[in-house]
Known about the structure:
With 115 residues, chain A is mostly beta strands.
Amino acid sequence: EPEVTQTPSHQVTQMGQEVILRCVPISNHLYFYWYRQILGQKVEFLVSFYNNEISEKSEIFDDQFSVERPDGSNFTLKIRSTKLEDSAMYFCASNPAGVGGYEQYFGPGTRLTVT
Amino acid sequence: GENVEQHPSTLSVQEGDSAVIKCTYSDSASNYFPWYKQELGKRPQLIIDIRSNVGEKKDQRIAVTLNKTAKHFSLHITETQPEDSAVYFCYSWGKLQFGAGTQVVVTP
């Protein structure tokens, strides 16, 4: 069964550094998402992406964040200048288009630690 | 304020008993209502979902009920087992928002 994959599984970075989190959505899916989950808290929506552009974003997704689909398979989340409060688990998700396309398939997550 | 409210935040049940978690949403346009289970350190996993044209859906020991008039949907787990211990999240598709989560602990 196809799965969403994410790399790296764990990223440690210093405050102020840029990080890029990578995701490979399921190949025939057209909608892509990033969520984050601070330890012990709920999963929070960051951004959705469709047809090579952002379709929705939350208040969390400020100018420090950007997303890109640089080729036909990868979907990336960039944080330009990381802050301590960016430490969290970041999940990528995808779902297919169409009437039955609601179910989101989640990747295993990237744990980001900002020191 | 929150667009989806989930209760309770924690739920302890004896093995074999039932568990019920409820979510209330505000977006009238929502028409898809999933429930996710998340084990410690793992990704959220879809366990059951329901669309707005039905009122109840069941899959073995798990069921979801939907009341569109009252704007709430509930997860029901019957004959709970220790492996049901996890955090459960509802999701509001209209706002792309998870509920706050319910920590379910099933004690043998």
